[in-house]
């Protein structure tokens, strides 16, 4: 039985670059790429009022939208999951959910605060969750 071999080509070494000095650079976080823009898409963040997000999702479901998609990125993943579970609980079993996770590539721009420095960009990865809530048909 052959043992799997690990070569230097197959192993990726990632060097952590030092973060620019916050007194010399201003950090600008870009939005993630390829955001879907359907009426049924709800993007959850940690700054918006949770109750407002819950009411918005409930209004979509009450308006007869067959399915809604809840998206959470990074620290908002827990909030997105809590929101989906609360909507499912309120529906008394008439709503099901399908959960997918992904990794999203983000870009941070460092803009110099002085003219002597050059602008920098850094790429990083962040976890994301995509939750599809849909009504199930009542079976008798």
Question: Can you describe this structure?
Answer:
The chain has 140 residues and is α+β, with helices and mostly antiparallel strands. Helices cover 19% and strands 36% of the residues. The protein has 2 helices and 5 strands; from the N terminus they run ββαβαββ. It has helices at 50-62, 77-90, and strands at 25-29, 41-44, 67-73, 95-112, 120-135. A hairpin with a 7-residue loop joins β4 (95-112) and β5 (120-135). The longest helix has 14 residues, at 77-90. The chain is elongated, with a radius of gyration of 21 Å. The protein starts with 24 loop residues before the first strand and ends in a 5-residue tail after the last strand. 13% of the residues are buried.
Q: Which structural traits does this protein have?
A:
alpha+beta, five-stranded mixed beta sheet, 5 strands, elongated, disordered N terminus
* Cα shape: elongated
Strand order of the largest sheet: 1-4-5-3-2
Structural class: alpha+beta
Helix-strand pattern, N to C? EEHEHEE
In helices, the fraction of residues equals 10-25%
N- to C-terminal separation?
55 Å
Low-confidence stretches: 1-5
Short structural summary:
With 140 residues, the protein is α+β, with helices and mostly antiparallel strands. It is built from two helices and five strands, in the order E-E-H-E-H-E-E.
SSE layout and pairing:
Elements: E1 25-29, E2 41-44, H1 50-62, E3 67-73, H2 77-90, E4 95-112, E5 120-135
Parallel strand pairs: 2-3
Antiparallel strand pairs: 1-4, 3-5, 4-5
């Amino acid at each position: 039985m052959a043992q799997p071999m690990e070569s230097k080509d197959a192993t990726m070494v990632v060097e952590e670059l030092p973060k620019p000095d916050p007194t010399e650079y201003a950090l600008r976080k870009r939005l993630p790429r390829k955001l879907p823009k359907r009426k049924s898409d709800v993007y959850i963040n940690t700054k918006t009022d949770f109750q407002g997000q819950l009411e918005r999702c409930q209004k979509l479901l009450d308006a007869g939208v067959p399915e809604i998609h809840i998206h959470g990125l990074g620290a908002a993943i827990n909030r997105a999951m809590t929101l989906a579970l609360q909507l499912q609980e309120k529906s008394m079993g008439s709503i099901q959910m399908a959960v997918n996770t992904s990794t999203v590539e983000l870009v941070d721009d460092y803009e110099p605060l002085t003219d002597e420095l050059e602008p920098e960009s850094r790429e990083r990865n962040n976890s994301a969750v995509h939750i599809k809530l849909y009504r199930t048909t009542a079976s008798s």
